[in-house]
Amino acid sequence: MVVDIKWALVLDGIGESCTNILNLLGIQTICRPNIIREYLLNDLYAYDAIVVRPDTLITKEILAAAFRLKIVALASPGCGQIDMEAASNRGISVINAPNSTVISACELICGLLLAVAKHMRPARTAFSKGLWSNGSFKGNELKDRTVAIIGCGRVGKGVASRMSGFGMKVVGFDPLLSVTHNNGSCTMIKDINEIWPIADYIVLLGDYVLYSMIGFDPFATQEQCEQYFISKMTPEEQPAFQQWLDINYNFFVDFINADVLGRCKTGVKIINVGRGGLINERDLLDALNSGQVGGAAIDVFEGCQKDPVTLSLIEHPSVIATPHIATSTTDVPVHAAKEISEQIVNLVKPGTYSTMLSELNKIYD
Predict the structure, then answer these.
(1) 139: how many CB neighbours lie within 10 A of its CB?
(2) Fewest Cβ atoms closer than 10 Å to its Cβ: which of 41, 219, 278, 356?
(3) Can you give the pLDDT at residue 227?
(4) Cα 279 from Cα 254, distance rounded (Å)
(5) What is the Cα–Cα distance from 303 to 325, expressed in whole angstroms?
(6) Which residues lie below 8 Å from residue 231, measured CB to CB, with a gap of 6+?
(7) Alpha-carbon gap, residue 187 to 180, rounded angstroms
């Protein structure tokens, strides 16, 4: 697949790491960090590709004005605010940067797990009040303890490799991955119910609906599937897969609840950087107060800060709460700009970079 791209419009201050790579191949770039909608509509006719951030609204009207446009490049994971149907109807390919947030997310998860293991929250709180008794906060070593990773995609794979470096036993569960897949340092478990009694730490990385869409993308290449240890979906499997989604959708809500927590080890520790709705917050709060759960680190919440249950979790002495910062680093935009620009270059001159194409809609064969 070769795409003729001569001019690219780079919006939202995406930066030099993008334009430098494009210019190196001879793609002319125009940067408009603060362009207003009227000017965007007037200027789009001249460009073969546009590069945007996820909060940029790319509507049917905008796509209609861009009669030369071949590529909308999103410098972020996900789909952003792009009218995918309109892009597909116009024959415009939408690509994104799925790997740009992986390292930042992995590092936060590992940091939260360590902080919970060493009781850093209660120790810091007591220390700030003048209490110097280090004997009151005895944490645990991670070596030889078991961490269960629920959702074993890109981030899960990274967490597994990092925590195995601490000598942890790493097990994983993902309904879309076979237990025979070699997922790096992670031993895949077939039945989720086998995990609860053995896990000292449970890491939640996302609801299965999202993993399903990524893991079984029928447009993913075989190479992409093999890199992330994912089964390649055949056209014949799609109807059964959709039925599986329809049947199990409610399974993702309150996935961690009183029943599940009661089957876990006493003192189990929970780390949630996936979705707020995965955990029943009231059940988690009760389990923390009873001692069934020994600690938690939560980066995503179901309720808002004014919700009394959510607020109680945030203020709980055994909880480390963060305001959805898993991917909030200065490095993520740099990674995203680099990844997306290398994909554009590969569309013009295939094989220039090892970066794989991440199409969100199937346009080119």
Answers:
(1) 15
(2) 219
(3) 54
(4) 5
(5) 16
(6) 176, 177, 178, 215, 216, 225
(7) 9
pTM for this entry:
0.84
Most confident of 193-202, 217-226, 237-246: 193-202
Rounded distance, CA 83 to CA 60, Å? 6
Mean pLDDT (the chain, rounded): 85
User: What confidence tens digit (pLDDT) does each residue in 269-305 have?
Assistant: 999 998 888 899 999 999 999 999 999 999 999 877 7
Residue 23: φ, ψ to 5°: -65, -30
Pairwise CA distance, residues 357 & 339, whole Å: 9
CA distances from 341 to 97, 234, 279 (A): 9, 30, 37
CA distance 164 to 106: 13
CA distance 22 to 43: 19
Q: Which residues contact 336 (CB under 8 A, 6 or more apart)?
A: 14, 75, 76, 97, 100, 101
Distance CA 80, CA 82 (A): 6
For residue 18, pLDDT beyond 90: yes
| CA dist list (Å): 34 to 13, 14, 83, 97, 209 | 8, 11, 21, 22, 35
